[in-house]
């Protein structure tokens, strides 16, 4: 095989990243003392795993073209096949002792995100430096498939549009009302007052801090639920736009998520200070993790919004299914209760409900002032990266059929 | 001359779905009752069209309703994906579409807000939008109404603002789908003058129209489509003759 220097460098970088991901996955799976015990197993299987992944990526022809581009199909199939091959080889060569399934899954997620990540980074950096691939040559529009890096780059080029769509929704929301934005600050105040009165004087069974946890969960839940139900209309309600102007369609659902994010942040700026003062919660270090977990929730929500926006274009039933799904999901998420109140057997299943890791993390960092547990990290990372990639992949696959479905 | 658009054996198939099974109910009923089942019918909107359009050429696409003109335009615009064949274009070509005027306008927003939103839909950054904003206002002649919500505009004002935006986007390839046929004579004249200015600046123009006058005023080459196939490719006069024969010798709408 004829491999150029660029491709060889890419392969070496991927291999190094793969090794780092595998060790990191073990570290995520096992806490410090256990990790020391399991590290030798990880290091023994490391070469096998890394080689298996490199072979799978080579088989997917990731290193074939002269560019660094990787399509989503190559990424997902390449890493999945690599993981399967690695598992098979490890089983045959080393046996299963000391091999962790959770670490394997974590490794897949870390690997997928970092392989895509550095390529996107390099693509963006090149674009910024004004070294795009030769542009004046004629290219076949019919054969071009969207790539992950290319899409994210074009989303960033269109950031002005995302901003303007969000501004439009904000303006429309507040136009004509006397108090304007104040409404968004007033409603959390009213919510706090009503819930506090209800659970202090009317329903007295609630434990200490119940209102804090309830509202924290409810506000984060609303951000997700609103984004999800609004995104079902993102594509089908912009029919004439879809049929006359070409732009990355993913912008429509993403703008809806960003709009709901601004509403959520407005609520949080009232809610957090008020509740922290009334509940005597002092700022602490774990709270610094809030932007990180919020970012993961946003990524997760964008993935869901992309799936729903495209899904509704093909099946109008998605809207109604979503309504039912959301009400079921609400009670499967620790909002009205905390995981510690739940029987031991149900804790892991409930943590695996898609929105749980984020809400549990907010509860842990704001109310209990603890660092989130490793399981919360792992599940949260898995859902946000997994669902984001899945949503992007599905959306990009059907993007050019959307205009015909309306 | 370097080509701007090369279509090779370009085809587009649509699937017509009767009793469209977009709803699960329809799928479910279809299990029991054949008449309620979704039936699919293939429809070739475009079949084996090959044409090369050079930089700076102004080409009209004429044909009867349903002959595939708009489909061709939408394929070039990247709104649909071709089913077969090749469509070669420069990767960095900026494509301006005037397929429908004032799309994406929002009634509650003012004229100015709509201009900013609309230019960003077409991919302009804020500085670029602000740079062309005064020209758009002057061109549309709506300076007095820019802070009024667009829902209070007349349909003519709506159209004028839409065209003013499209006229200032400065694309390399301009795709027109007879957007100004609904306007009055003055507006149509203004549109034709603007399109000819594009032409004078060496832009490539693809123009779908039923109007022989407009085609003569703007274009120097005509493609005639019939049932999705390319019937004629050549100079304007002969192309329009050919088209006239197709529609049955009747007088052309002018």
List the helices and strands and how they pair.
The complex is a heterodimer of chains A (about 400) and B (about 250).
Chain A: H1 5-29, H2 32-59, H3 72-93, H4 101-128, E1 138-140, H5 148-157, H6 159-174, H7 182-202, H8 210-231, H9 239-242, H10 251-278, H11 290-314, H12 318-331, H13 344-351, H14 356-367, H15 374-398, H16 402-405
Chain B: E1 3-18, H1 24-32, E2 39-54, E3 58-63, H2 69-76, E4 84-90, E5 95-98, H3 111-121, H4 126-140, H5 155-167, E6 173-177, H6 185-200, E7 204-208, H7 212-218, E8 221-226, E9 229-234, H8 236-246
Parallel strand pairs in B: 3-7, 3-8, 5-6, 6-7
Antiparallel strand pairs in B: 1-2, 1-4, 8-9
Helix pairs in contact in B: 3-4, 4-5
What does this 3D model show about the protein?
The complex is a heterodimer of chains A (406) and B (254). With 406 residues, chain A is mainly alpha-helical. Chain A has two domains: 3-137, no CATH class; 148-405, no CATH class. Chain A has helices spanning 5-29, 32-59, 72-93, 101-128, 148-157, 159-174, 182-202, 210-231, 239-242, 251-278, 290-314, 318-331, 344-351, 356-367, 374-398, 402-405, and one strand spanning 138-140. In chain A, helix 1 (5-29) crosses helix 4 (101-128), helix 2 (32-59) packs across helix 3 and helix 7 (182-202) packs across helix 10 (251-278). The mean pLDDT of chain A is 84. Chain B has a single domain (54-246), classed as P-loop containing nucleotide triphosphate hydrolases (Rossmann fold), CATH 3.40.50. Chain B is built from eight helices and nine strands. Chain B has helices spanning 24-32, 69-76, 111-121, 126-140, 155-167, 185-200, 212-218, 236-246; strands at residues 3-18, 39-54, 58-63, 84-90, 95-98, 173-177, 204-208, 221-226, 229-234. Chain B has a six-stranded mixed β-sheet, with helices on both faces. In chain B, strands 2-1-4 form a three-stranded antiparallel β-sheet, covered by helices on one side. In chain B, helix 3 (111-121) packs across helix 4. The longest helix of chain B is centred in the last third of the chain and has 16 residues, at 185-200. Strand 1 of chain A pairs antiparallel with strand 4 (84-90) of chain B, so a sheet runs across the interface.
